[in-house]
Amino acid sequence: MKMDKRIFISDKIGPVYGNIAAGYIAGSGQYKSSPVQQRINPLLRSINDLQHEMVCLEHGTTLEKFKERKSLIELGKASRGPKTKEWHFENDELSAIESEFRDCILPNQFTTSGMTTQLIKQPIGMIIGDEVTTMFKDSGKEWASDVFEFISRLYDCDPSKKVTQARSVEIPENTYVTFLFMTTTYLYKLLTDSFFLQGTGNRILWVVEEAQQLEEKQVKKDRMGLDFFNADLKKINDRAKELAKKLSIIDKLPEGQVMVDAFATERLIDYIAEKEIETEIRVQEDIMDPDSRYFKRMGLNVIKIALIHCVSRYVDDYIEGVQIPFMEVNIDDANFAIATMEKHKEYYIQMRKDAQVYGPSQTKTHENDFDRIIYYIVFFNKKGERATHGKLFQKSRMLGEDFQRIITTMISNDMIEMKQEMSPRSGLVRYYLVKDNK
């Protein structure tokens, strides 16, 4: 009833699956939870109901009848009297049916061992987090670091975690997890560069509310309409059921590798190569540049988006009665994926700018700031360039006042030396030398 590891694109590194991680950042009161409550949760419940219905039909009953029988069993449990043989037989039968039920909504608060146990039973699902700043607040703690590393492995469809189940060791197989979280701009105060260097942060497709244009916000306002306070819940649930049935068509599409036609291949390869070059330039300038990992990851994410768009196109074809012997990514899928990825890149850049202004990087210890300034002075000197005031400020990722305070402190403590020269082009140029490198 949904995409999983049965459908993939294969590149030279290995299979690429269609699961993604998306993060939505918005200010308080901007309805960031509404899409989940009004659209996603009803859809996921409908997907669950479809799966449960199929299980019930395989056992010669319906989901509605199962629920009726289950309610009678629960009433029997609540009674104090002895249970009859018939009650025990009915309870065992319903428990056997229920053991085959699957829930595509995975817990959003977990330990790695707890989630691993869950994935052994249910390897496919979605983790939805609302107001996840608590997890980021503890990101410096050892348990949280382990969780972030585990999330990264889940994104890669390879949790590689073992748990003991009744004295035997088990490993989750065929895991396929999609992530969606919403949070406020308070997240900026908690994000550190290590979150992106470690890997979790650069896997996420970010959406930043503040980065959207006023025209888009006006469209949102128009869509709210005069019936804003009269939401038709039945209509919402009916729409979710229709979409769940449409998604179930994925089970009927060809399994295995999805091919990529020549035009889409050329378009995607050009884009991926462009991001590889951009990554190399960033790494050459700063081997610890946290943003370089995001640009590197864009190549993988664009393939994932192209795969998702391709499969959705074939779902529409199936509904129209088109015979589908195999699936193939075409130029429309590639163009859609690239346009979408570039939009997420804009959001990412905006998010990183905001995080640098409001984030914990502005409250680093002076010792770390000193090391960073010295590192870049030596870095520019080795390239045969002067470590000018402007270059150091740009690389420092500090606010202007903080940067000037650090520079003044380092000069006062004989750590660095400032030089000044007149330039025909730029006028007075200030640059710095490490005291030992005069």
Which percent range fits the helix content? 40-55%
Return the average pLDDT rounded to an integer.
83
Q: Structural class per helix/strand content?
A: alpha/beta
Spatial gap, N to C terminus: 68 Å
Q: CATH top level of the largest domain?
A: Alpha Beta
What is the domain tally? Answer: 2
Describe this structure as you would to a colleague.
The strands form 5 sheets. Strands 4-5-8-3-9 form a 5-stranded parallel β-sheet. The protein has a 3-stranded mixed β-sheet with strand order 2-1-10. Helix 1 (34-58) packs across helix 10 (233-247), helix 11 runs antiparallel to helix 12 and helix 11 (262-285) packs parallel to helix 13 (331-358). It is α/β, with parallel strands linked by helices and 438 residues long. It is built from 16 helices and 15 strands.
Structure summarized in a few sentences:
The protein is α/β, with parallel strands linked by helices and 438 residues long. The protein has two domains: 7-359, Rossmann fold; 364-437, Orthogonal Bundle (Arc Repressor Mutant, subunit A), CATH 1.10.10.10. The chain is built from 16 helices and 15 strands.
